[in-house]
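4.2 Preliminary Data

To establish feasibility before requesting continued support, the project team ran the inverse folding procedure on a target of 141 residues. The structure was first converted into the token representation described in Section 3, and no sequence information of any kind was made available to the design step. The complete token record follows.
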């Protein structure tokens, strides 16, 4: 089963590289802590006006620290642990029903040769990335 998983992950890596897709895993928890921490410190130092100022300053700091953290999707896919690779395989395999391939190169040729199938695979990949990895997606810079 592992070679099939590897074939699908390679397919997803190749397609996302061709589309130049980059993702950033959201640091929502860290951002909330920065904003809340800024509001707390501002309240201690300046009362209600300080809380407002601290909250804004903390939010700006969180936004600044999260900017520029987009990485190529193939890099993210290469770092996936086995359980997440298996989940990606299951999600994309649902789109590939009825398709039989011998290796990753054959699978890539089958998918890229069919525009509708290629779009369905990309849609499944992006759905996985946004739902399972909770990542923000960016296309071609």
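Position-by-position output of the design step:
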């Amino acid at each position: 089963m592992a070679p099939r998983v590897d074939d699908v992950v390679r397919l997803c890596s190749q397609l996302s590289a061709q589309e130049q897709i980059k993702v950033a895993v959201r640091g929502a928890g860290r951002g909330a802590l920065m904003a809340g921490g800024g509001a707390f410190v501002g309240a201690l130092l300046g009362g209600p006006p300080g809380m407002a100022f601290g909250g804004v300053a903390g939010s700006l700091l969180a936004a600044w620290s999260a900017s520029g953290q987009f990485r190529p999707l193939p890099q993210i896919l290469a770092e996936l642990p086995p359980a997440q690779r298996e989940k990606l395989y299951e999600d994309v395999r649902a789109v590939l029903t009825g398709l039989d391939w011998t290796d990753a190169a054959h699978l890539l040729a089958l998918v890229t040769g069919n525009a509708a199938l290629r779009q369905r695979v990309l849609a499944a990949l992006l759905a996985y990335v946004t739902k399972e990895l909770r990542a923000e997606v960016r296309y071609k810079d």
